[in-house]
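Design review, sub-item: ligand-bound model
Attendees: FS, YL, KQ
YL presented the inputs for the glutamic acid complex:
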Amino acid sequence: MKRLIIKIGSNILAPAGQGLDTTRLHAIAQDISGIADMGNQVVIVSSGAIAAGLKKLGLKAKPHDIKLQQAAAAIGQSSLMWAYEQSFAEFGKKVAQVLLTRDDITSRLRYINAKNTLFTLMSYNVIPLINENDPVAVDEIKFGDNDMLAALTAGLVEADMLIVLSDVEGLYSKDPCQKDARMIESVERITPEIEQLAGGKGSAVGTGGMYSKVLAARQATDHGIPVVIMSGTKSGLLPRLVKGEHVGTYFEPNKKRLPSRKGWIAYGVRSKGTIHLDSGAVSALTTMGRSLLPSGITKVEGSFDVGDYIYCVSEDGTRIAKGLTNYSSRDLEHIRGKKTSEIEKILGYKYSDEVIHRNNLVVM
Ligand code: GLU
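KQ shared the predicted structure:
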């Protein structure tokens, strides 16, 4: 049994402003039902609410007005769910709607609630269908795009694989429209060069949307979850992939898989500040697996409280870790560079010897 996250984008379900392509959606539901019938658990992250809503509002293109986009999402989400509900029912499958905002991932309590709900649904053989809760999401609590939401969901449910369905076959060595473009079968590590191929900053060859897919792939593979980017417009490919055939572009995972909680620290929760470390502290964290003590802190940036999550950077500014701080930024200004034995004398109290305990820290 494998647990798979399948991300389906608007450009597959609702191409060129035509509203939902229910024939395509039905074909995808058939393939996913086939995978579930092989004994796998599936969680779907599906876009298409805004596109479906626009059609109902009689609009052809996505409006710039955010309120109108949010209204379109509210209108379209029910159509989207209804289409999935009907298609999956034909294959004897039940679905459930889960709408999330970034806040639901940032808050540890809501993250755990969402996780429990998803696991309960799966234990009843129900396929969860996740989308961003667009009608209530404003910039500060948005995931940005559903590719990132899919990567976070993969971490949330400790998925065995993240499958991102695209309107092209995979990641190409050049613009896929060019004759000598070749599909890359496998990517060992997502380097800046790979990001460029996907249309990263300064690149002229990328296809729309591939960049955010590769960024999502980077996050999931860092987490230890393998990723496949493949075509979502051809029927029958998904079951072939799950049976072990090579389909699309495979992104190898980091060998060391992050446990769910550490994944949440690395990618779920937002950082409230940054502390700079000297080289001794950097090697204590990265090679010796130690906790962070105040003596190795050289500089404190931002304003944060006890219990917030903060980045640790090396002298040259490279991010090396993220973790939960036992001291506020104000306290750290006083105890940075000092010995643990001096903490109480300086502050008048001591929460702990460690500024960040090893168990609450992820090395990036
Ligand atoms: N949540 C949006 C929708 O359902 C799509 C966002 C995205 O795909 O990045 O229309």
